[in-house]
Hints:
Layout: H1 9-16, H2 20-32, E1 36-39, E2 43-46, H3 50-76, H4 96-101
Antiparallel strand pairs: 1-2
Amino acid sequence: QAQDKKLTYALISELTGLDKETVRRNVKTLEENGWGTTSRMAGIRFSASEEMNAQLIELNKVERQLVGKFAKILANNDAIDSAPAPVEPHLPVISPADKTASGKS
Length: 105
């Protein structure tokens, strides 16, 4: 079942194509800054505060605008056929209430 699976350095490495040691170092930095936790039992877990989630939302808005501008530049220089349609935000927003309700406190 999906609930039995855990996020690991190896899985992130496989999904992203990044070296496993690079993933490990970056996850360690995120953990040190309060963005997540790691354990052998639970794997890697996102555990940011509501304030951090708000920062992610703002960052995602800026990121989407910049990617759109970049796509337009590429399209104007015939590097791609046309600018892509805007996409919905891809980062999940997890409130502390969601984490405790699902038993992931």
